[in-house]
Amino acid sequence: MTRPITAGVDGSEESLAALAWAAREAVRRGLPLRVVHAWRFQSHDAVDAGDAATQEGWVRESVGGAVRQVLERHPDVEVTTDILQGDAVETLVRVAGESEMLVLGSRGHGRIMGFLVGSVGQQVVVEATRPVVFVRAGDQPSAEAAGREIVVGQQGDPEDSAAALGFAFATAAARGATVRAVRAWTLPPVFAYSPGSLRLMDEAGGLEPYEQKALAAALAPWRERYPQVRVVEHVEIGSAGQVLLSVAGTAQLMVVGRRAHRTAVGARIGSVAHGVLHHAGCPVAVVPHS
């Protein structure tokens, strides 16, 4: 079954930027585009907000206008539109599971503050089983120009980052872009190392060569699958979030893995994904671990 690229729209500037991004990606990958708006009937005592049918008509008119603009730019893309009544988070999580990826808008706060992810987006990215891409208001096609990279974070063993690496390589192949694979490392307490890992590090010639070999091993199957994609291997000491953000200026897309953490007050994403999502200036794809 062919999964569409799905864009969640609500009429805001950032959601229209997300729709435009999703449409370009659908064209590049040869996939259909699905446009979804989740809504609930709301009555207001102070103003005449109309009945449910009237409100749905307003929604359809707004979404229809956005879709017409997409078709003017990309007349060959296959587009379906769904106006779905229900809770926004539940609806978007469900449609994400039916999609190649879900694309949402996120307001920006400039270079320092980066993204402002709304409550809906924060909950969706925790629960979604498929990649979720966040696009800032004002995102332009020129940001996807040649020379700008797909930056992806890699950590742990090869299988730990397989989903994020696969997404990054597929995106780079569709765009003719370079993948910059980033592996950050720190100096942990010596007691954190097992005798086995210490032996492997000695054989590798030290800590940084060990990390370089670990990154190369994680990349090997993806290099084989996508031989046309140029790869830059980036190993640097520092926190993963800081190292990724240090190269965000060259990125047309940042890809990070996500493992949801369950707490007493609910689920949340890890600190690396959270930091990159809120401070990178480019679109960010959050990919759940397999």
From TrEMBL:
<protein>
    <submittedName>
        <fullName>Universal stress protein</fullName>
    </submittedName>
</protein>
<feature type="domain" description="UspA">
    <location>
        <begin position="1"/>
        <end position="136"/>
    </location>
</feature>
<comment type="similarity">
    <text>Belongs to the universal stress protein A family.</text>
</comment>
<dbReference type="InterPro" id="IPR014729">
    <property type="entry name" value="Rossmann-like_a/b/a_fold"/>
</dbReference>
<dbReference type="Pfam" id="PF00582">
    <property type="entry name" value="Usp"/>
</dbReference>
<dbReference type="InterPro" id="IPR006015">
    <property type="entry name" value="Universal_stress_UspA"/>
</dbReference>
<dbReference type="InterPro" id="IPR006016">
    <property type="entry name" value="UspA"/>
</dbReference>
<feature type="domain" description="UspA">
    <location>
        <begin position="149"/>
        <end position="288"/>
    </location>
</feature>
